[in-house]
Amino acid sequence: MATERNIRTNIGFYPPQEDGGAWRSSLPSLERALQQGFPDAVIDHRTSAVHGRQALDFEIALAPDVWIVGTSSMEEPDYAFITLTDVTADEAAVFALWLRDSFAPAPDLVRFVSSLAMANGEANPWVLPASGGSEEVLAEIRRHIDTFDTF
User: Fold this and answer.
1) What pLDDT, in 10s, does the model give residues 96-120?
2) C-beta neighbour count of 21 within 10 angstroms
3) Largest CB tally within 10 Å, which of 3, 69, 81, 125?
C-alpha cells in the first residue's frame, strides 16, 4: 500500500495574471479577513527588505496545534500575493479553500505555485479549482506537488 509523502514547501497564491488587482483588496482588508476567519491570528506589518513594499506577516491556527505562517503584499492596485511558508498540501488546502471562498471576490480568481515547482523551473502558477470542496482543492494541490517532487 502506497503512503502519501508529507512534503513541506512554500506555496504562493496570486490573482489571475491578466488582472493582478482582481482580488480588489488591500493589506487592511486581508488583515480583517484573517482576523475574522482565524480568531487567534497573529499579525505584524513591515516593509519588505527585498521590494520596499509594505507587507503583512501572519501566523494562523488551522486546527488545535496546527499553525501556519504566511506573508502578503498588496500595496499596488495591480499587484497581490500571499505566500505560506513550509506547509504541507493539507495545510495549504485549508488556507486555499478559505482564500477562495472567504476572501477572493469570485472563486475563479486564485492561482498558486509551490517553491518545488519554481525550483524545477516552473514559474507559471496553476489555477485553483473554482468549484468543489476541500477534497478537490487538496487533490489539485497534491497533484501540483507530485508533479514537481523529484526526490
Assistant:
1) 999 999 999 999 999 999 999 999 8
2) 14
3) 125
